[in-house]
Amino acid sequence: MKHRTITANGLRLHAVEAGPEGGPLLLLLHGFPEFWYGWRHQIAPLAAAGFRVLAPDQRGYNLSDKPKGAASYSLDLLARDAVALIDAAGREKAYVAGHDWGGAVGWWLGVHHPERIEKLAILNVPHPAVMLHTVKRSPAQQKRSAYIAFFQLPWLPERVLRARNWAATVKALRRTSRPGTFSDEDLALYREAWSQPGAITAMLHWYRAALRRGVPRLTGSSRVTVPTLLLWGAQDTALLREMAPPSIALCDDGRLAFLEEATHWVQHEEAGVVNALLADFFR
Q: Alpha helix (H) ranges present in the chain?
Protein backbone atom coordinates (compact mmCIF):
# COMPACT_ATOMS: atom_id res chain seq x y z
CA MET A 1 0.00 0.00 0.00
CA LYS A 2 1.14 3.51 -0.81
CA HIS A 3 0.15 6.61 1.17
CA ARG A 4 -0.29 9.87 -0.70
CA THR A 5 -1.94 13.28 -0.46
CA ILE A 6 -4.30 14.20 -3.30
CA THR A 7 -5.58 17.70 -4.04
CA ALA A 8 -9.30 17.32 -4.74
CA ASN A 9 -12.18 19.80 -4.65
CA GLY A 10 -9.89 22.41 -3.10
CA LEU A 11 -8.79 20.12 -0.26
CA ARG A 12 -5.79 17.96 0.52
CA LEU A 13 -7.08 14.44 1.08
CA HIS A 14 -4.86 11.70 2.44
CA ALA A 15 -5.41 8.32 0.80
CA VAL A 16 -4.03 4.83 0.55
CA GLU A 17 -3.53 3.25 -2.88
CA ALA A 18 -2.93 -0.34 -3.90
CA GLY A 19 -3.20 -2.53 -6.96
CA PRO A 20 -2.10 -2.25 -10.59
CA GLU A 21 -1.96 1.33 -11.86
CA GLY A 22 -3.85 0.36 -14.99
CA GLY A 23 -6.57 -1.54 -13.15
CA PRO A 24 -10.16 -0.31 -12.89
CA LEU A 25 -10.41 2.41 -10.23
CA LEU A 26 -12.21 1.31 -7.05
CA LEU A 27 -12.99 4.01 -4.50
CA LEU A 28 -13.58 2.86 -0.89
CA LEU A 29 -15.43 5.41 1.27
CA HIS A 30 -15.40 4.91 5.05
CA GLY A 31 -17.93 6.07 7.63
CA PHE A 32 -18.02 7.39 11.20
CA PRO A 33 -15.87 7.15 13.29
CA GLU A 34 -13.40 5.39 11.00
CA PHE A 35 -10.80 6.47 8.44
CA TRP A 36 -9.14 4.69 5.51
CA TYR A 37 -8.15 1.90 7.92
CA GLY A 38 -11.80 0.84 8.10
CA TRP A 39 -11.19 -0.92 4.76
CA ARG A 40 -7.97 -2.64 5.88
CA HIS A 41 -9.45 -6.12 5.25
CA GLN A 42 -10.57 -5.18 1.73
CA ILE A 43 -7.69 -3.17 0.24
CA ALA A 44 -5.20 -5.98 -0.44
CA PRO A 45 -7.71 -8.62 -1.66
CA LEU A 46 -9.41 -6.18 -4.03
CA ALA A 47 -6.04 -4.98 -5.29
CA ALA A 48 -5.07 -8.63 -5.87
CA ALA A 49 -8.28 -9.01 -7.87
CA GLY A 50 -6.92 -6.42 -10.29
CA PHE A 51 -8.47 -3.18 -9.10
CA ARG A 52 -6.63 0.07 -8.53
CA VAL A 53 -7.91 0.64 -5.00
CA LEU A 54 -8.10 4.14 -3.55
CA ALA A 55 -9.17 4.47 0.11
CA PRO A 56 -9.20 8.11 1.24
CA ASP A 57 -9.58 9.71 4.60
CA GLN A 58 -12.71 11.68 3.78
CA ARG A 59 -12.77 15.39 4.58
CA GLY A 60 -12.57 16.05 8.30
CA TYR A 61 -10.96 12.71 9.10
CA ASN A 62 -7.48 11.67 10.19
CA LEU A 63 -4.85 13.28 7.92
CA SER A 64 -7.19 14.97 5.43
CA ASP A 65 -8.08 18.66 5.53
CA LYS A 66 -10.73 19.76 8.01
CA PRO A 67 -12.58 22.84 6.74
CA LYS A 68 -14.32 24.91 9.39
CA GLY A 69 -18.04 24.90 10.03
CA ALA A 70 -20.85 22.39 9.55
CA ALA A 71 -21.74 23.95 6.20
CA SER A 72 -18.55 22.44 4.78
CA TYR A 73 -19.88 18.90 5.25
CA SER A 74 -23.04 18.73 3.15
CA LEU A 75 -23.63 15.64 1.05
CA ASP A 76 -23.25 17.72 -2.09
CA LEU A 77 -19.70 18.71 -1.12
CA LEU A 78 -18.81 15.23 0.12
CA ALA A 79 -19.91 13.71 -3.19
CA ARG A 80 -17.93 16.32 -5.10
CA ASP A 81 -14.84 15.23 -3.17
CA ALA A 82 -15.33 11.71 -4.52
CA VAL A 83 -15.80 12.99 -8.07
CA ALA A 84 -12.65 15.09 -7.70
CA LEU A 85 -10.72 12.01 -6.57
CA ILE A 86 -11.84 10.21 -9.72
CA ASP A 87 -10.68 13.21 -11.75
CA ALA A 88 -7.33 13.27 -9.92
CA ALA A 89 -6.83 9.63 -10.85
CA GLY A 90 -7.31 10.57 -14.49
CA ARG A 91 -10.42 8.42 -14.87
CA GLU A 92 -13.85 9.06 -16.30
CA LYS A 93 -15.55 6.51 -14.06
CA ALA A 94 -14.90 4.46 -10.93
CA TYR A 95 -16.37 1.58 -9.01
CA VAL A 96 -17.47 2.85 -5.60
CA ALA A 97 -18.06 1.08 -2.28
CA GLY A 98 -19.21 2.99 0.79
CA HIS A 99 -19.97 2.03 4.38
CA ASP A 100 -22.03 4.04 6.88
CA TRP A 101 -21.57 7.76 6.00
CA GLY A 102 -19.40 6.62 3.10
CA GLY A 103 -22.46 4.72 1.91
CA ALA A 104 -24.55 7.89 2.14
CA VAL A 105 -21.99 9.59 -0.10
CA GLY A 106 -22.21 6.58 -2.41
CA TRP A 107 -26.00 6.87 -2.66
CA TRP A 108 -25.61 10.59 -3.42
CA LEU A 109 -23.14 9.81 -6.18
CA GLY A 110 -25.55 7.25 -7.62
CA VAL A 111 -28.40 9.79 -7.70
CA HIS A 112 -26.51 12.92 -8.77
CA HIS A 113 -23.36 11.72 -10.56
CA PRO A 114 -24.26 8.40 -12.22
CA GLU A 115 -22.16 9.26 -15.27
CA ARG A 116 -19.04 8.93 -13.07
CA ILE A 117 -19.93 5.54 -11.55
CA GLU A 118 -19.48 2.11 -13.11
CA LYS A 119 -21.09 0.18 -10.27
CA LEU A 120 -22.02 1.04 -6.69
CA ALA A 121 -21.82 -1.07 -3.53
CA ILE A 122 -23.39 0.16 -0.29
CA LEU A 123 -22.77 -1.36 3.14
CA ASN A 124 -25.28 -0.87 5.96
CA VAL A 125 -26.83 2.45 5.17
CA PRO A 126 -30.20 3.10 3.51
CA HIS A 127 -30.98 5.33 0.56
CA PRO A 128 -31.34 8.91 1.92
CA ALA A 129 -35.00 9.10 0.88
CA VAL A 130 -35.76 5.89 2.77
CA MET A 131 -33.85 7.10 5.83
CA LEU A 132 -35.78 10.37 5.93
CA HIS A 133 -39.12 8.60 5.48
CA THR A 134 -38.36 6.02 8.17
CA VAL A 135 -36.96 8.33 10.82
CA LYS A 136 -40.06 10.54 10.52
CA ARG A 137 -42.48 7.64 10.98
CA SER A 138 -40.77 4.91 12.97
CA PRO A 139 -40.41 5.26 16.76
CA ALA A 140 -37.99 2.32 16.69
CA GLN A 141 -35.67 4.12 14.26
CA GLN A 142 -36.08 7.39 16.13
CA LYS A 143 -34.84 5.66 19.27
CA ARG A 144 -31.88 4.17 17.43
CA SER A 145 -31.01 7.57 15.96
CA ALA A 146 -31.27 9.52 19.22
CA TYR A 147 -27.48 9.90 19.43
CA ILE A 148 -27.65 12.14 16.35
CA ALA A 149 -29.61 14.73 18.35
CA PHE A 150 -26.88 14.67 21.02
CA PHE A 151 -24.27 15.27 18.31
CA GLN A 152 -25.99 18.55 17.42
CA LEU A 153 -24.93 20.18 20.69
CA PRO A 154 -21.89 22.49 20.68
CA TRP A 155 -18.63 21.28 22.31
CA LEU A 156 -20.27 18.74 24.69
CA PRO A 157 -20.22 15.75 22.30
CA GLU A 158 -16.55 16.41 21.59
CA ARG A 159 -15.78 16.47 25.30
CA VAL A 160 -17.73 13.27 26.00
CA LEU A 161 -16.21 11.34 23.10
CA ARG A 162 -12.66 12.49 23.96
CA ALA A 163 -12.86 11.93 27.74
CA ARG A 164 -10.63 9.33 29.43
CA ASN A 165 -8.65 8.58 26.28
CA TRP A 166 -11.75 8.17 24.11
CA ALA A 167 -13.37 5.66 26.46
CA ALA A 168 -16.96 6.31 25.33
CA THR A 169 -16.04 6.16 21.65
CA VAL A 170 -14.19 2.88 22.08
CA LYS A 171 -17.06 1.48 24.15
CA ALA A 172 -19.54 2.38 21.41
CA LEU A 173 -17.48 0.53 18.79
CA ARG A 174 -17.15 -2.55 20.95
CA ARG A 175 -20.77 -2.52 22.14
CA THR A 176 -22.14 -2.41 18.60
CA SER A 177 -19.79 -5.03 17.11
CA ARG A 178 -19.11 -8.71 17.62
CA PRO A 179 -16.47 -9.52 20.28
CA GLY A 180 -12.97 -9.21 18.91
CA THR A 181 -13.90 -7.09 15.91
CA PHE A 182 -11.71 -4.18 17.03
CA SER A 183 -8.42 -5.23 18.63
CA ASP A 184 -6.42 -3.11 21.06
CA GLU A 185 -3.94 -2.48 18.25
CA ASP A 186 -6.74 -1.32 15.95
CA LEU A 187 -8.14 0.99 18.58
CA ALA A 188 -4.74 2.57 19.21
CA LEU A 189 -4.74 3.63 15.56
CA TYR A 190 -8.30 4.88 15.82
CA ARG A 191 -7.40 6.98 18.87
CA GLU A 192 -4.50 8.46 16.94
CA ALA A 193 -6.80 9.38 14.04
CA TRP A 194 -9.45 10.89 16.35
CA SER A 195 -6.76 12.92 18.12
CA GLN A 196 -5.64 14.75 14.98
CA PRO A 197 -6.16 18.53 15.47
CA GLY A 198 -9.76 19.44 14.69
CA ALA A 199 -10.73 15.92 13.70
CA ILE A 200 -13.48 15.09 16.19
CA THR A 201 -15.35 18.35 15.56
CA ALA A 202 -15.05 17.89 11.80
CA MET A 203 -16.28 14.29 12.08
CA LEU A 204 -19.33 15.42 14.05
CA HIS A 205 -20.01 18.15 11.49
CA TRP A 206 -21.15 15.43 9.06
CA TYR A 207 -24.12 14.88 11.39
CA ARG A 208 -24.60 18.57 12.11
CA ALA A 209 -24.73 19.44 8.42
CA ALA A 210 -27.40 16.79 7.82
CA LEU A 211 -29.74 18.14 10.49
CA ARG A 212 -29.00 21.85 10.58
CA ARG A 213 -28.89 22.40 6.84
CA GLY A 214 -31.11 19.48 5.90
CA VAL A 215 -30.29 16.78 3.41
CA PRO A 216 -29.80 18.42 -0.01
CA ARG A 217 -32.82 18.12 -2.24
CA LEU A 218 -33.22 14.81 -4.01
CA THR A 219 -33.91 15.38 -7.69
CA GLY A 220 -36.36 13.61 -9.94
CA SER A 221 -37.41 10.22 -8.68
CA SER A 222 -34.21 9.85 -6.62
CA ARG A 223 -33.65 6.56 -8.40
CA VAL A 224 -30.20 5.07 -8.86
CA THR A 225 -29.60 3.96 -12.43
CA VAL A 226 -26.16 2.37 -12.05
CA PRO A 227 -25.90 -1.30 -10.99
CA THR A 228 -26.04 -1.36 -7.19
CA LEU A 229 -25.27 -3.97 -4.54
CA LEU A 230 -26.54 -3.40 -0.99
CA LEU A 231 -24.89 -5.50 1.73
CA TRP A 232 -26.55 -5.39 5.16
CA GLY A 233 -25.34 -6.81 8.45
CA ALA A 234 -28.67 -7.84 9.96
CA GLN A 235 -27.59 -7.33 13.58
CA ASP A 236 -27.08 -3.58 13.11
CA THR A 237 -28.17 -1.82 16.31
CA ALA A 238 -28.37 1.65 14.72
CA LEU A 239 -30.29 1.07 11.50
CA LEU A 240 -33.39 -1.08 10.99
CA ARG A 241 -33.03 -3.84 8.42
CA GLU A 242 -36.52 -2.94 7.18
CA MET A 243 -34.92 0.02 5.39
CA ALA A 244 -32.86 -2.22 3.10
CA PRO A 245 -35.58 -3.57 0.73
CA PRO A 246 -37.16 -0.17 -0.07
CA SER A 247 -33.65 1.22 -0.62
CA ILE A 248 -32.77 -1.38 -3.23
CA ALA A 249 -36.24 -0.90 -4.74
CA LEU A 250 -35.08 2.59 -5.72
CA CYS A 251 -32.37 1.05 -7.92
CA ASP A 252 -33.02 0.19 -11.56
CA ASP A 253 -30.52 -2.69 -11.31
CA GLY A 254 -30.17 -3.63 -7.64
CA ARG A 255 -29.16 -6.62 -5.56
CA LEU A 256 -29.60 -7.02 -1.81
CA ALA A 257 -27.73 -9.45 0.43
CA PHE A 258 -28.26 -9.79 4.17
CA LEU A 259 -25.41 -11.13 6.30
CA GLU A 260 -27.50 -12.45 9.15
CA GLU A 261 -24.78 -12.77 11.81
CA ALA A 262 -23.00 -9.48 11.08
CA THR A 263 -23.55 -6.15 12.78
CA HIS A 264 -23.16 -2.63 11.39
CA TRP A 265 -19.42 -3.35 11.02
CA VAL A 266 -20.02 -5.95 8.33
CA GLN A 267 -16.79 -5.49 6.34
CA HIS A 268 -14.76 -6.11 9.52
CA GLU A 269 -16.68 -9.10 10.81
CA GLU A 270 -17.36 -10.92 7.54
CA ALA A 271 -14.35 -9.74 5.56
CA GLY A 272 -13.97 -12.88 3.46
CA VAL A 273 -17.62 -12.94 2.43
CA VAL A 274 -17.73 -9.20 1.78
CA ASN A 275 -14.53 -9.30 -0.28
CA ALA A 276 -15.87 -12.14 -2.44
CA LEU A 277 -19.22 -10.40 -2.95
CA LEU A 278 -17.57 -7.11 -3.87
CA ALA A 279 -15.05 -8.67 -6.24
CA ASP A 280 -17.73 -10.75 -7.96
CA PHE A 281 -20.12 -7.81 -8.30
CA PHE A 282 -17.52 -5.35 -9.56
CA ARG A 283 -16.16 -7.81 -12.11
A: 40-48, 75-88, 101-112, 128-137, 139-144, 146-151, 156-175, 184-194, 199-212, 244-248, 266-269, 271-282
> Catalytic residue among 37, 207, 236, 268, which?
207
127 is catalytic: no
What are the residues facing 224 on neighbouring strands? 251
100 is catalytic: yes
**Beta strand 228-233 with 117-123: parallel, antiparallel or unpaired?**
parallel
Give CA–CA dist 240/276, Å, rounded. 25
| CA angle 33–209–126, rounded 5-degree value | 65
What is the side-by-side strand order in the sheet with 25-29? Answer: 2-8, 11-18, 52-56, 25-29, 94-99, 117-123, 228-233, 254-259
Tell me the pLDDT tens digit for each residue of 174-225: 999 999 999 999 999 999 999 999 999 999 999 999 988 666 666 667 899 9
Set 100, 112, 127, 268: catalytic member: 100
Cα-Cα end-to-end distance for the chain: 22
Q: In whole angstroms, what separates CA 237 from the centre of its chain?
A: 17
Determine how β-strand 11-18 pairs with β-strand 2-8: antiparallel
